[in-house]
Amino acid sequence: MKRTFVLLLSFFLLGCTEIAPPCAPYTLDAAPPRYFVILDYGHGGFDVGATGVDTGVKESDLNLVIGECTARALEDRGCFVLRTRTGPDALGDTKRDDMARRGAILCTDGADCTVSIHMNKFADRSVKGPMCYYQAGADDGEALATCVIAALCAALGRDDRPANPGNNYVTRIPSVPSVLVECGFLSNPEDEQALQDPKFQQLLADAVADGVIAYLDAQSGKPQ
Ligand SMILES: [Zn+2]
């Protein structure tokens, strides 16, 4: 036993020709995240959602790209962000399974709010622009959606548009304020092009992040 120990010690000492750098020190005074936001990128995998009329672009892909821009915009503003998905795949093999797993993440304890990112489509191809849905009857969800659509309309230089009441799983399931953002219409030629432009995607992401922060700051009494 003693010999084994000496052998192991020798092996360890001979093997350590370099001193390992110390771990990054953990400091108790590190600033906690400003807010905890859950971001949901709609659809994915077998469920592509809507498709662009002119280009065939998949809503699921745009949700992921614009969602990631939004996640980073919120992180840049000091938030902790939990994503429902981080790649192109769905969360399950069936729509039911996917939604159940999505719902479980959206109901994670401690979140301040949830935001689902989607793209719209409509028979009338002239209809364009973003829309924000909240769960009908949820006052806090309406206030959040109102802040987000106001920030989006301001960023895009368009007339104010009210938030819309709705009844969607992703706004109904969470117990915290929740909004479903339809970033634009894949049926409108201008929107379809713009939604694939990285600069426009960043503009949308920053506006959504600003709207979310404006709502949460107002709720928490923090300075704007
Ligand atoms: Zn969708």
Give the proportion of residues in helices.
Answer: 40-55%
Mean pLDDT: 90
* Terminal residue distance: 66 Å
Q: From the helix content, strand content and strand pairing, which structural class follows?
A: alpha/beta
Largest beta-sheet characterization: 6 strands, mixed
- CATH class placement: Alpha Beta
Bound molecules: zinc ion
> Overall 3D geometry?
globular
What's the count of strands? Answer: 6
Strands of the widest sheet, in order across it, are: 2-1-3-6-4-5
Order of helices and strands: HEHEHEEHEHEHH
Classify the beta-strand content into a percent band.
15-25%
Query: How many H/I helical runs?
Result: 7
Instruction: Outline the low-pLDDT stretches.
Output: 4-18
How many domain units? 1
Fourth-tier CATH superfamily name: Zn-dependent exopeptidases
Radius of gyration: 22 Å
CATH topology: Aminopeptidase
CATH architecture tag = 3-Layer(aba) Sandwich
Descriptive report:
The chain has helices spanning 2-15, 59-76, 95-106, 139-156, 169-172, 189-194, 198-220, and strands at 36-41, 80-83, 113-120, 131-135, 164-166, 178-185. Residues 4-18 have low confidence and may be disordered. Strands 2-1-3-6-4-5 form a six-stranded mixed β-sheet, with helices on both faces. Helix 4 crosses helix 7. The protein has a single domain (31-219), classed as Aminopeptidase. It is globular and about 50 Å long. With 224 residues, it is of the alpha/beta class. The longest helix is centred in the last third of the chain and has 23 residues, at 198-220. It is built from seven helices and six strands. The site of zinc ion has 5 residues, from loops.
